[in-house]
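Format notes (please read before filing issues)

Several people have asked whether sequences and structure tokens are stored in separate files. They are not. Every record keeps both together, in the order shown below: the sequence lines, then the token lines. Line labels are part of the format and must not be stripped during preprocessing.
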Amino acid sequence: MNYLNEVNKYMFFGSKPYDDFLNFPEWGFLVRIVTFMLAIIGMLAFFSLVPTRETSYTKEGKYTLIAYLLHGFFIRGMRAFDLENIHLGFPGFIVLALASILLTTVLASEPVGKVYNKIERYFLGNKNKTKPTYNG
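Then the structure lines:
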């Protein structure tokens, strides 16, 4: 039950040297290989759940990559105002959860996706393409 206390999150990031989180850094290559193998298994499991044909909910997920790319600006804004250290309580948590759902819905909406697509085409010099690059 106490095994999770032994796992250091930095071994999954791949951005820190083994000396920072392993008692025996010479085993780091093995830790990295196991971590990559677990990542590949996780990706395969995820891809087995991805539908191969269009369904009712795949239309809703068309612009989720854009929501993922743009949400970082809001996170940085919250960090700039040091909002992550505010104690909200339960009502504040509910408001924050609803605001998160609303923000996700707005960022993954078709109008935001189309504006993002135009900006992407402008900066990438791909002005003749009408579809987002990730949709084919």
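For reference, the curators noted about this record: The chain has two domains: 3-49, 64-135. Residues 28-49 form the longest helix (22 residues).
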